[in-house]
Design a protein that fits this description.
alpha/beta, Aspartate Aminotransferase, domain 2, seven-stranded mixed beta sheet, four-stranded antiparallel beta sheet, 19 helices, 17 strands
Length: about 500
């Protein structure tokens, strides 16, 4: 079995080797070409390298590991590997262990839930969010609402669907109505929570990390959703200091699934108040007297028994991706994104009209990641039903994503849905998705998402561009199985 270092060196050919990632694909992801697959959904999930899966199996079957809530030899072995995994996460993000703690969760969503349920929302400490957010971040507003706190959304605008920085400053400085927040901290208490993504999972827009310090200057804690950002970008927590950062590791290196992390500043953790306790989170508890004492470290937030057989794979995965080099991964996917965007611009019907409409930044030089959202257009300019694209691409062995990608705000901005129309839909009880689409007057309620990663190659992009051209050029939606409306 190859080690992470050998794999990362990509055959020892050096950073300038033009075919280094092709060799990596053949060695670690050969099952793609062996099975005739074109995988274009890296924002949905990274792919598992063969060496990581094999290494995991050898570790588990070659040792004895038990529940870490004990002092037995098997438990100590698990505890040691868990500690090593925490250290590996901190090293990867260049985070000072004195400032940051690593809490293992089932995924980024689980990390967000930990923050939402325990954050001290009040009428004077509300929630500010980007309209461009995953639904797992949007769900924080329910915790805020339950405690009487206001919520403000900051719009995204322009052809690139970037967040409106002027409106962000207005919300943070409490000029927006309904939050009742002041500038700066009072008695060490936060004035609220700003939650936004480092990279949009819909458009690939990368929102400025400089906003972290800016929001903190207004007295806010900052929650950074880094799930779509960290698979191909370095995040330096010695330079940027979000109070809470959430990630899902399967998006970075494919294996294991079911493991995420909340990387939290220890000072911010101390302000959280958990609404319950569980096995593994307390030092002492009484059933009859009804008191408990929470642990004063990461254990206070890791409910029950952590996934002690899989969490060590995070350390192995980080060694694997760092062996390749995040700078090289970034350069690789950036070049492929440029190829994809350039190719999309060339897709034309016979009369010269475009075959696709791209949402978000139109070139790889902009602040964007390797996630590209688009709709296929028929010869009459109408959107081709995304469900048809799903069906047709699957028949060609292409795995891509369609829908709204659990990001309704970015979708509403992309399709320019007015607020009054969305509110009217909320007041009606309709019988089907098609009824809602009719009410919202949507030509489409979703898009096609192409996302690239470490295993991607130029031929994957060529396959997709050829598929679009051969399948939809000069065709009209509604004819030969093409419909006019889509679902999300």
């Amino acid at each position: 079995m190859e080690t992470a270092g050998t794999t990362g060196d990509i055959g020892g050919r050096g950073a300038d080797a033009p075919d280094g990632f092709a060799e990596l694909r053949a060695r670690e992801f050969g099952y793609l070409d062996e099975g005739g697959h074109t995988y274009l959904d890296h924002t949905g999930a990274g792919l598992a390298p063969r060496s990581l899966v094999m290494g995991s199996a050898e570790r588990i079957t070659g040792g004895l590991f038990g529940n870490p809530h004990s002092e037995s030899p098997a438990s100590r072995a698990s505890g040691l590997l868990l500690a090593e995994a925490r250290q590996a996460v901190l090293r990867h993000f260049n985070a000072d262990p004195a400032e940051y703690a690593v809490i293992f969760t089932p995924n980024a969503t689980g990390a967000l839930r930990l923050v939402g349920e325990a954050y001290p929302f009040t009428r004077g400490a509300g929630l500010v969010m980007s309209l461009d957010n995953h639904n797992s971040v949007n769900g924080l507003r329910e915790y805020a609402r339950a405690r009487g706190a206001g919520t403000a959304y900051v719009p995204v605008s322009g052809p690139g669907l970037q967040m409106d920085e002027r409106r962000l400053r207005a919300a943070l400085s409490a000029r927006g109505r309904g939050l009742g927040l002041g500038r700066g901290r009072a008695g060490g208490r936060s004035r609220g929570l700003l939650a936004y993504p480092a990279q949009s999972n819909f458009t690939g827009v990368q929102h400025p990390l400089e906003w972290i310090a800016g929001a903190q200057a207004y007295g806010y804690d900052v929650l950074l959703d880094a799930a779509a950002f960290v698979p191909a970008n370095a995040l330096d927590l010695s330079r940027y200091h979000p109070d809470f950062t959430v990630v899902s590791w399967y998006k970075v290196f494919g294996h294991p699934t079911g493991i995420g992390s909340l990387i939290a500043r220890r000072a911010a953790l101390a302000r959280l108040r958990r609404p319950w306790f569980s096995g593994g989170t307390i030092y002492a508890v009484s059933a009859q007297a009804q008191w408990h004492v929470l642990a004063d470290d990461e254990a206070a937030f890791e409910d029950g028994t952590v996934n002690f057989l899989s969490i060590p794979d995070v350390a192995a995965g980080l060694a694997w991706i760092n062996g390749i080099g995040m700078d090289r991964v970034h350069a690789h996917v950036t070049a492929l994104t440029g190829q994809l965007l350039k190719g999309l611009r060339t897709l034309r019907h016979s009369d010269g009209t475009p075959m696709v409409r791209v949402y978000g930044p139109r070139n790889a030089d902009a602040a964007r990641g390797a996630t590209v959202a688009l709709n296929v257009l028929g010869a009459d300019g109408r959107i081709v039903d995304e469900r048809v694209v799903t069906r047709d691409s699957a028949a060609r062995g292409i795995s891509l994503r369609t829908g709204c990608f659990c990001n309704p705000g970015a979708g509403e901005a992309a399709f320019a849905l007015p607020l009054h129309r969305l509110r009217s839909a909320a007041r009606k009880q309709l019988g089907s998705l098609e009824d809602y689409l009719e009410l919202l007057r949507l030509p489409s309620a979703g898009a096609v998402r192409i996302s690239l990663g470490v295993s991607s190659q130029p031929k994957d992009i060529d396959t997709f561009l050829k598929f679009v051209t051969q399948t939809y050029r000069d065709r009209v939606p509604g004819a030969a199985g093409l419909a006019a409306r889509v679902g999300c």
